[in-house]
Fold:
Amino acid sequence: MARTSATLFAGLALVLAMNAGCAVSPGSEPAPAAAPSTAGTGQTHRADRANEREQGRHAAGRSSPSKAPVSRIGGSSPVLQEARPLVISIPRIALQSHIMSLGQREDHTLEVPPEEAGSPAGWYVNSPTPGEMGPSIILGHVNSLSGSPGVFARLQELVPADKIIVDREDGTTAVFSVTAVERYEKDSFPALEVYGNTSHAEIRLITCDGYDPQTGLFEENLVAYARLAAATH
Structure:
């Protein structure tokens, strides 16, 4: 079942806006992670429930269903059942990466992928899986601590209609079509627009942008929006 995103991401917005895909340059210090507020969001223990779902999937095995678990909204827009993402590919920027799972730390700040060179993209486990109804959140670094390009270093090159392809654990492949690529100042990050409920299966790829050489920090987030266009099995 897809997670309800409007409340789920409200408390995480600041954390994501500050840290998503931001490996700072050597010698500079990262911005501190802010603890998300869980008051009134029902977010407490959601990470634990996500871990339980993950354990249940492994206990049940990984056999593929007899047919592709695809439904449609109004006969046109595809929607997939829950299945953990494994690999993301973006032909426009020659990207292919395994996808790791990201949860929350004990202090309720969001985990981010490792900052070493070659770090993969990461899917936030309390967001819908790619292809489910709602916005699936995938983070990636724009660079590494050594200064080499990160997995989402070329994300700004995407344009509408570019394809984002996600291979899933159930054997399905979700094909998304880019609808927009936007930059946001971190102090005015539009949480509801990025993380709020949607009427389609969508994906958000998030990294950092707006590097300031004087401070050694990234001042912006870059978000690629895409909608599920097709699914194959």
